[in-house]
Structure formats: structure tokens, C-alpha cells
Design a protein that fits this description.
The chain is of the alpha/beta class and 257 residues long. The chain contains 7 helices and 11 strands. It folds into 2 domains: 184 residues, Rossmann fold, CATH 3.40.50.150; 55 residues. 29% of the residues lie in helices and 32% in strands. Strand 4, helix 5 and strand 5 form a beta-alpha-beta unit. Helix 5 packs across helix 7. It is globular, with a radius of gyration of 18 Å.
Length: 257
């Protein structure tokens, strides 16, 4: 299940790992509570986090007694996820797999694709395939949350360059990060060159991300089979608008008739 057809993500995400420091514990906990509330999760319910990364959301859910399965293609992320789960004695399942290749069927009460982990693939049919695979993984009546950056906000705030510094792991100096961007308006793809500089050593990665407006994603969820599509611009249920950076989009797998 580890076939991933090789892409920009192969080397990028292990190097990107220190950037997680920019997300506060408060924000993570608020998002985890939102997932639980919006998907109707409770102790004993099952949740698929795809991709799960280092378990940023999966672990808080597991602490609430939710049966979590995390899928990711980056082995170092899964290693960190499972190590933390063992430390806190949390019974999670971890699966290394390309999210287009998952084979679950009717197993989960809820599922999530969180923190802009969607739109990675050059073929739009592959991005839609991710939604179809997650739809198949859910039980009838199960709910799915897609949490992504809002293209309309990006267009209102687009900058061709960006940069910042973050602490290096272990407190050993700083990592300087610079990003140069180019937006393809015809295909709605952001092409970015990331530069990571630490201790005089620079790593450079090219990445591309398909960005979506709410109406596009709602249409894709419907095409995958979801019903009752809802969209929010924050964990306070504010409406999606060009002033909201992120979108929380929720769909339901039809119950059995």
C-alpha cells in the first residue's frame, strides 16, 4: 500500500516538519473540538485521518476515546505519530499509503483531510479520486471534513514572495525559510519554490498546489457521492468569504435506505 507514484511531496514534507511550530496548541485543540462536534464523534466512534501527518489532530481525538486510523505517505511523520501514541498509551492505527490508494470500505464513522492536504496532484481526476476513496471508507451516514486554504482569500492577498524564520529542532539555531510563488490563473495552481536554509546548508523544493473556491469543492464532494454539503470560514461557523483564509467543508455519505 505504499505506492505513491513519486511526486514533489517525497522530500518536501520531512524538511517542512519544523514549520508545524507555527500552529499553536490552542488552534490545534480548537480544530480538534470542531472536528468532533461537526462530525458527531464520540468515544468508541471511528475516524480516518487522511493524511494524518504527525497526528496533530488524530492524537487529540484519540485522547477522547475515538478510534483513530491515520494514513500518510511520509514515514517520518507516521513514526512520530505512533511514538507519541505509545507514549500516551493511545491505541491508534497507522497506515503508510498514498491517499489515492486507500482500500477501506464502510469502516469509519467520520473522516478528515485537514490543513490544506488536498489538491496535491497534477491530474484533477486524482484529486477527485481522493474524495471518492474517502467516501468509500465511510459507513453510511458517516461525515467527512475537508479543511483547506481558500482560493478567494489567496487571490485577495496574493504575494509573489514570502519568508520567515523558525526555531530549528532541538533549539539549535534558526531555519530561514523563503518562498517564491507563481499563480497559474488558467488552472488555479500555485507553483512555489521553497528555500530552507539552516547552518549554511540550503535545501530547495518545487511544489504545486491546486487551489479551490468553495463552489468547486462542493461540486467535487457531490460528484464523489456526498450530500448535505456545508461550508464554514472558521471554527465559529462563520460564513466562507474572501476575508476568511481557511474553509471547513463538510459532507455526509447517504444513510442506507
Amino acid at each position: 500500500m505504499v505506492k505513491n507514484d513519486s511526486g514533489w511531496w517525497d522530500g518536501f514534507f520531512p524538511t517542512f516538519r519544523p514549520v508545524f511550530v507555527l500552529i499553536s496548541t490552542q488552534a490545534t485543540n480548537a480544530q480538534a473540538r470542531y472536528v468532533i462536534n461537526k462530525l458527531g464523534l464520540a468515544p468508541g466512534k471511528s475516524f480516518l485521518d487522511c493524511p494524518c501527518g504527525i497526528g496533530r489532530i488524530a492524537l487529540p481525538l484519540a485522547r477522547k476515546g475515538i478510534k483513530v486510523t491515520g494514513v500518510d505517505i511520509t514515514q517520518s511523520y507516521l513514526d512520530e505519530f505512533t511514538a507519541k501514541a505509545r507514549r500516551y498509551k493511545l491505541p491508534v492505527q497507522a497506515v503508510r499509503c498514498d491517499m489515492r490508494r486507500i482500500t477501506f470500505a464502510g469502516q469509519f464513522d467520520g473522516a478528515g483531510n485537514l490543513w490544506t492536504s488536498f489538491g496535491y496532484f497534477a491530474k484533477e481526476s486524482d484529486n477527485l479520486l481522493v474524495l471518492k476513496k474517502i467516501f468509500r471508507a465511510l459507513k453510511p451516514g458517516g461525515k467527512f471534513m475537508l479543511h483547506v486554504i481558500n482560493r478567494d482569500w489567496i487571490m485577495a492577498n496574493y504575494e509573489a514572495t514570502g519568508g520567515y524564520e523558525i526555531p530549528a529542532p532541538g533549539g539549535k539555531g534558526l531555519i530561514k525559510i523563503q518562498e517564491k510563488r507563481r499563480f497559474d490563473y488558467r488552472r488555479s495552481i500555485n507553483y512555489a519554490t521553497w528555500h530552507f536554509l539552516q547552518d549554511g546548508v540550503e535545501k530547495v523544493f518545487e511544489m504545486n498546489l491546486r487551489m479551490y473556491s468553495f463552489h468547486e469543492l462542493a461540486g467535487m464532494l457531490e460528484a464523489a457521492g456526498f450530500i448535505d454539503i456545508e461550508g464554514y470560514g472558521s471554527t465559529r461557523d462563520e460564513p466562507i468569504s474572501r476575508d476568511k483564509m481557511m474553509m471547513f467543508i463538510i459532507g455526509t455519505k447517504p444513510p442506507r435506505r
